[in-house]
Amino acid sequence: MKKELMQLPLLITMGDPNGVGPEICLRTLSKKQKNVVRPVAIVGDYKVLCKAADLLKIKKNLILVNEPESVAAASKLGIPVLEGGIQLGESVKPGKITKKAGAASIGWVHLATQWVLDQRASAVVTAPLCKEAVEHTVPGFQGHTEYIGEMCGDSRPVLALVHKNWVVAHVSTHVSLKEACDRVKQDRILKVGKLLQDFLVRYKGSKNPKIGVAGLNPHAGEGGLFGDEEIREIIPAVKTLRKMKINAIGPLPGDVVFPQLRVGTFDGVIAMYHDQGHVVTKTLLFDLGEKRKTCGVNTTLGLSVVRTSVDHGTGFDIAWKAKADEHSLCDALELADLLKRNMP
Predict the structure, then answer these.
(1) How far apart are CA 145 and CA 336, in angstroms?
(2) Is 12 in a helix, a strand, or coil?
(3) Rounded CA gap, 48 and 22, in Å?
């Protein structure tokens, strides 16, 4: 890869200033990321980050830079911060939902994504924001996935959860359960299957990854006894995927396909709706005891930009208490860098 392309920075958006975003960003960049080859900057409020650095006793200098092109040089001296003219505009209110925090957090996402679209940065990694806070500024806001998708021209992108050999892609995400059932359609399953296949090739280096397809209904419909979505939509989609030389198997009951993913029978799984994939993933990967350790990465498949994210929320209950765990953000940063290196 050309040296100049390797110098394009990875951008981490700070997330909601009243949450754990500032803390996990600084914890991540205060230590060397051995699997990340590109320079990295935080897109957020410099003064807020300085306050968080004092809280965490971060020794590295924070360096305010004006444009992505300055990140590589600044990263040799400390932790680069890009504000892009967007600041919180009020004092930090730990654990509180405020309109200004929502406006700033989505502003940094927009700015970072646009820099990637303009080829001034390589990828965007997002710390958690508060949907309720952002909704004051962006009516109908559903989340990072949909917002960045619309910026890239895809109003229904595909969300995937990743941790080591665990990969789950979703047919639908932030909609009601009733609407999620209505969205189980052949064309959508085909889109998710193709994107998951491409992702697994880039992520795992698999030439013929094996993809498990979850059913929607209990027991995958039990031959139509518990619903006919499997017969009408999922089975035809699986057959079409196999005709396309995609090694898809299913539909299988959720309580079968996820244990098989865990032991390596599958390289990835297609979940039919948000909680089907999220609940089992977070049950396996989160330790919410005293250590509050979180693992797992959220990534968006099929966009014109590489976007990864933490797989947890704003942590308002522990915000600004120096308790936030940065492992998910570290993993998200590494995944973004890996995906860029494996781009065709």
Answers:
(1) 15
(2) strand
(3) 7
Does an H or E element contain 242, and which?
helix 235-243
The Cα 239–Cα 291 span in angstroms is 45
Q: Which two tokens stand for residue 50?
A: 């300085």
| pLDDT tens readout for residues 255-298 | 999 999 999 999 999 999 999 999 999 888 876 544 545 678 99
The side-by-side arrangement of strands in the sheet containing 166-170 is 62-65, 79-82, 40-43, 10-13, 123-126, 306-310, 297-301, 158-163, 166-170, 268-271, 210-214, 247-252
Gyration radius of the chain over CA positions: 20
pLDDT at 143: 87
What share of the chain in percent tops pLDDT 90?
79
CA distance 152 to 140: 18
CA angle, residues 313, 319, 321, in degrees to nearest 5? 145
When divided into structural domains, the chain yields a total of 2
**Count of Cβ atoms closer than 10 Å to residue 211 Cβ:** 25
Question: How is residue 337 written in tokens?
Answer: 């860098």
- pLDDT, tens only, 32-45: 877 888 999 999 99
Q: Are residues 97 and 176 in the same domain?
A: no
d(CA 10, CA 280): 30
Instruction: Give the domain range for residue 14.
Output: 3-157+303-341
Same domain membership, residue 128 and residue 27: yes
Q: How confident is the model at residue 3 (pLDDT cuts 50, 70, 90)?
A: very low
Closest CA to 21 of 40, 39, 43: 43
